[in-house]
Amino acid sequence: MYRPSALLLYSLVSTAIFNCIYAEEVKIEVLYKPENCPVKSKRGDALNAHYDGYLAKDGSKVYCSRTDNEGHPKWFILGVGQVIKGLDIGMTGMCEGEKRKLMIPPSLGYGVIGKENIPPNSTLIFEIELYGVRRGPRSVESFKLIDLDGDSKLSRDELKIYLQEEFKKDTRKQDPSYKDRVLADILRKNDHDGDGYISTREYNVFQHDEL
Ligand SMILES: *[C@@H]1O[C@H](CO)[C@@H](O)[C@H](O)[C@H]1NC(C)=O
């Protein structure tokens, strides 16, 4: 009867050691999850959220989006390093309306250096409320919208039609040559192989989906 418990003990100890050395993950606690969840956040999405940050060691508040920017929730793109790594990881797969509490180790936060009011090697706690998830400007959805003939590449004409629709939404007066300049600029910046088309690969900068 000794054997199983010794084994169990051994596995607990090794897990503890493992966790000690590699405790570099974000702990996610879901505080509230709405029943209706049509979209889940993923890399490349634009998220609208409030997040308050605290130091784990004494609970002092280091960041509060509710007092910043007149209390408007923040918009940012997920998974591209616009926020600390721990938030990029911890805010993935969230529903609109979901609330989470994250524990972020220093290596996924501000590291051994720290920042302003965040001391070196700080573990951070974030409380997050996600309000909105929008598919990013480089999503599969937007590609399909532009790719009218469905051949998985964007031609000059398809881009032109798309831009015309976009420009209709903008009520400001535009110089007639503006549209052509924007089109030329889009092709120059995205058509890397110069074949006159923007491929899925050239388009999908975040590469977060298969087309
Ligand atoms: C932060 O952690 C690193 C690595 O564990 C250590 O070398 C360093 O002395 C720590 N800095 C402070 C200020 O505690």
TrEMBL record:
GO cellular component terms given for this protein: endoplasmic reticulum
Signal peptide start-end: 1-23
Xref: PANTHER family: PEPTIDYL-PROLYL CIS-TRANS ISOMERASE FKBP7, PEPTIDYL-PROLYL CIS-TRANS ISOMERASE FKBP7/14
Gene3D superfamilies attached to this UniProt entry: 3.10.50.40, EF-hand
GO molecular function: calcium ion binding; peptidyl-prolyl cis-trans isomerase activity
SUPFAM superfamilies attached to this UniProt entry: EF-hand (SSF47473), FKBP-like (SSF54534)
Keyword field: Calcium, Endoplasmic reticulum, Glycoprotein, Isomerase, Repeat, Rotamase, Signal
Enzyme superclass (EC): isomerase
EC id: 5.2.1.8
Domain of life: Eukaryota
Protein name as annotated: peptidylprolyl isomerase
Coiled-coil zones: none
PPIase FKBP-type domain ranges (all copies): 44-134
Species of origin: Scyliorhinus torazame
Reactions that this protein is recorded to catalyse: [protein]-peptidylproline (omega=180) = [protein]-peptidylproline (omega=0)
All residue ranges annotated as the EF-hand domain in the record: 134-169, 178-211
